[in-house]
Specification:
The protein is an alpha+beta fold. It has 4 domains: 41 residues; 102 residues, conserved putative lor/sdh protein from methanococcus maripaludis s2 fold; 90 residues, Efflux pump adaptor protein, beta barrel domain (Elongation Factor Tu (Ef-tu), domain 3), CATH 2.40.30.170; 143 residues, OB fold (Dihydrolipoamide Acetyltransferase, E2P) (Beta Barrel), CATH 2.40.50.100. The chain has 4 helices and 21 strands. The strands form 3 sheets. It has a 6-stranded antiparallel barrel with strand order 2-10-14-12-11-15. Strands 1, 16, 17, 18 and 21 form a 5-stranded antiparallel sheet that branches. It has a 4-stranded antiparallel sheet with strand order 6-5-3-8, with no helix packed on it. α2 runs antiparallel to α3.
Length: 410
């Protein structure tokens, strides 16, 4: 009995020790999971608030309407043959620089020259009939025949001129839709130009105004890259604020810097945008001859609809409204006081103050940044502005509500 009892005691102790170890491991695992989950869900740092002192100053503020569009040459000409024939030469390639009246291509004019010779002979014969007429009746008939022959000669010469395709304006060749051996029709084709500045060329290179910039598959397109327009669109809510002559700041995609322009026209007939909403066309003339622009490039446009100069401004983040009272924190010789102000308008990051401040007065600008969690995600989107208003901007032209900045008292 005693021997059995003594031999069983170590076994029980070992079993109890192992069981205790398992329990401790399990408890540690559960505790570690709970702690890590809590740490992941909790911010590693508290929200931070920073302040800066900014002087009220005179400046210029703008209210703009945003638009998007495409950069296009202001003047575009597409020339096509007005006479029938077979193309015998194409003298230009895409990218070539041409001058107004320069030959672009020709067709076989053998038959056309023969037609001119025949028409000229008809005029000579008709003139002989006029000279030999002996009665008033025969004279009248001969004169009518001469007029008809002269008209046919004019048409024959015009057809011969139409065998040579010339540039209606100076510019750069953008597309060539002709090749040697092609047959041309006898329609009334002529070069068409956008922008309304292309003059009427000779020998099948006439021009007309329009808004289409599509190239002709049977012609040669020339564009003037010295002047540009932006063909943009705006929503119906902004249409009433736009008028001809407003100034615009243009940001072309990929361009090294912004360019400027003036609203040429504002459309009154809407078209459907990609989102299905109504969009109204707006054409903006680009000022000057800026470099780095390319046809077909997209651009964003800010059209200035209101501008105030020499107005007193402070950062929008410095202004707050509490219980209907609009105030700023004014810092004077190290002492911060709450000062009532009257706001004349909010323009993005700047707010116009009409009363309550003078040029050079120093106001407190408070910035709050929400923390980021240990998982790398923010417990709330980082925000700046008084009492968490994003970016210091707010709609409706009224400052946001909020008390004095944390840690800054009157």
């Amino acid at each position: 009995m005693t021997t059995a009892s003594l031999s069983s005691t170590p076994w029980r102790r070992r079993a109890l020790g192992a069981l205790a170890a398992v329990v401790l491991v399990a408890a540690g695992a559960v505790g570690g999971w709970w702690w890590s989950s809590r740490a992941a869900a909790s911010p590693t740092t508290a929200a931070t608030t920073s302040t800066a002192l900014v002087a009220a100053s005179l400046g210029t503020v703008k209210e703009t309407v945003s638009a998007s569009g495409t950069v296009s040459p202001a003047n575009t000409s597409t020339a096509s043959f007005t006479s029938s024939g077979t193309v015998t030469a194409v003298d230009v390639e895409v990218g070539d620089t041409v001058t107004k009246g320069q030959v672009l291509a020709t067709i076989d004019d053998s038959d056309l020259r023969d037609a001119v010779t025949l028409a000229a002979a008809e005029v000579t014969a008709a003139q002989d009939q006029v000279d030999s007429a002996s009665t008033s009746e025969s004279l009248a008939a001969a004169r009518a025949q001469r007029a008809s022959a002269r008209s046919q000669l004019v048409d024959a010469r015009a057809s011969l001129d139409g065998a040579t395709l010339r540039a209606a304006m100076s510019g750069t060749v953008a597309s060539v839709g002709l090749a040697v051996g092609d047959s041309t029709g006898s329609g009334s084709g002529a070069s068409s130009a956008t922008g309304g500045t292309g003059g009427t060329g000779s020998a099948g290179a006439g021009s007309s105004t329009g808004t289409s910039t599509a190239t002709s598959s049977t012609g040669i397109q020339v564009v003037d890259t010295s002047t540009w327009v932006v063909e943009a669109s705006v929503s119906s809510s902004d249409l009433g604020r736009l008028t001809k002559g407003l100034q615009a700041t243009i940001t072309p995609s990929g361009a090294p810097q912004n360019v400027f322009g003036t609203v040429r026209s504002v459309g009154v007939v809407a078209s459907s945008s990609s989102s299905g909403t109504a969009a109204f066309p707006v054409v903006i003339d680009v000022t000057g001859t800026p470099e780095g622009l390319h046809a077909g490039t997209t651009a964003t446009v800010a059209i200035t609809v209101k501008q105030l100069t020499d107005v007193l401004t402070v950062p929008t983040q410095a202004v707050r409204t509490t219980n209907g009272a609009t105030t700023v924190q004014l810092s004077t010789n190290g002492t911060v006081t709450t000062t009532p102000v009257t706001v004349g308008g909010v323009y993005g990051t700047s707010t116009v103050v009409t009363t309550g401040l003078s040029v050079g007065d120093t106001v407190v600008v408070t910035t709050r940044t929400l923390p980021r969690t240990s998982t790398g995600t923010s417990s709330g989107s980082p925000r700046q502005g008084p009492e968490g208003f994003p970016g210091g901007g707010f709609g409706g032209g009224a400052p946001p509500a909020g008390g004095p900045p944390a840690g800054v008292g009157p």
